[in-house]
């Protein structure tokens, strides 16, 4: 890294970093900060497994600068946890949250899933109410992706107990209303934030962004991914590390770049990326912003708007200002945004978009 580079965000995740021993955590924090220290108002977030955390580890993280913790919940119902092979009781999670708060960590992220086996509106209501007792600053409400042809462990999950697409939508709406009733701002398609949280502020000021980790208020144009299969983003394009851990570690030990593949931006890539991001973040595309920042005429841009609207039976709104996704069409936002992607995704295996 060039000297003088500062980190606006540091995130430990993509697995269970709290499996590391305290001494190894100390060494890792020191190595990172020696390479590139935190900038002003930097955020250091860590994904914490309540089943794999203790006071010693949390002390090291807090002393090392962690100011945002992230806890995955998925669902608190014992039957659902047994079906998905993830046992994590409310009491264990509550204890982890209390330890985090006791160490002065200012912000807490949580996430739950809808669309799990055996899940119904009663069970997801109970889980959301328990989750709200933690007073999280941010909540991600993700749809469970059932892809047993890609994730072998999911072959043990009973597919006949999964909710239908209509039931999935009802589960999402149930949880969404509970978060809204509790005063959370709705952020994009699947996040919620307390009014004082950075995501809610970014949304109000038009600075909300979306990257591989979801929604963010970080405006840096460089994202560096470390670890097997992680993806980096640069102004010039994307780069992905080797997926196999053995290949990744071998490259690092040999002093080689671990990059296995990449994509260089060309043509309309940046334009289309911004169109997709605008829809995912704001449910609208501002025509004046796009024609100001990209080499595209207003005529060509509105041709794209009309073509997309036609694909969705004209449920979108096109005005002089641009393209807008009305509230009743927002469950389809991900699919609508995908229509602006110039690359063929038809051969990839995907889970339900709703």
TrEMBL record:
Domain Radical SAM core: 1-182
PROSITE patterns: RADICAL_SAM
UniProt GO MF annotations: 4 iron, 4 sulfur cluster binding; coproporphyrinogen dehydrogenase activity
InterPro entries xref list: Coproporphyrinogen-III_oxidase, Elp3/MiaA/NifB-like_rSAM, rSAM, rSAM_horseshoe, rSAM_sf
Main enzyme class: oxidoreductase
Keywords: Oxidoreductase
Keyword set includes Oxidoreductase: yes
Keyword Oxidoreductase: yes
GO biological process: protoporphyrinogen IX biosynthetic process
GO CC entries: cytoplasm
E.C. number(s) listed in UniProt: 1.3.98.3
Protein name: Oxygen-independent coproporphyrinogen-3 oxidase
Source species of the chain: Sagittula marina
């Amino acid at each position: 890294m060039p000297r003088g580079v500062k980190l606006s965000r540091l995130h430990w995740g993509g697995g269970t970093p709290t499996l590391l021993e305290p001494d190894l955590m100390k060494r890792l924090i020191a190595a990172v900060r020696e390479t590139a220290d935190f900038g002003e108002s930097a955020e250091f977030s860590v994904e914490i497994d309540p089943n794999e955390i203790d006071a010693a580890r949390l002390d090291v993280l807090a002393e090392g600068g962690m100011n945002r913790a992230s806890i995955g919940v998925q669902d608190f119902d014992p039957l659902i946890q047994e079906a998905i092979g993830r046992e994590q009781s409310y009491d264990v999670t509550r204890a982890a949250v209390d330890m985090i708060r006791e160490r002065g960590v200012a912000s807490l992220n949580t996430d739950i899933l809808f669309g799990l086996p055996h899940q119904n509106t009663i069970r997801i209501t109970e889980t959301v109410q328990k989750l709200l007792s933690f007073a999280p600053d941010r909540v991600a409400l993700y749809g469970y992706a059932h892809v047993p042809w890609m994730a072998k462990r999911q072959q043990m999950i009973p597919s006949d107990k999964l909710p239908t697409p209509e039931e999935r939508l009802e589960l999402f709406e149930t949880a969404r209303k509970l978060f809204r009733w509790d005063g959370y701002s709705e952020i994009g398609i699947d996040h919620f934030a307390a009014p004082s949280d950075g995501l809610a502020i970014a949304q109000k000021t038009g600075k909300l962004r979306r990257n591989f980790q979801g929604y963010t208020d970080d405006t840096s144009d460089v994202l560096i991914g470390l670890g097997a299969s992680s993806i980096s983003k640069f102004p010039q394009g994307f780069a992905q590390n080797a997926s196999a851990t053995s290949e990744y570690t071998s490259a690092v030990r040999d002093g080689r770049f671990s990059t296995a593949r990449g994509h260089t931006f060309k043509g309309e890539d940046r334009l289309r990326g911004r169109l997709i991001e605008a829809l995912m973040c704001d449910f609208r595309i501002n025509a004046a912003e796009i024609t100001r920042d990209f080499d595209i005429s207003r005529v060509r841009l509105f041709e794209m708007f009309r073509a997309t609207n036609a694909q969705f039976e004209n449920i979108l709104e096109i005005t002089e200002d641009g393209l807008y996704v009305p509230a009743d069409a927002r469950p389809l936002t991900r699919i609508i945004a995908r229509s602006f992607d110039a690359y063929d995704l038809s051969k990839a295996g995907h889970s339900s978009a709703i």
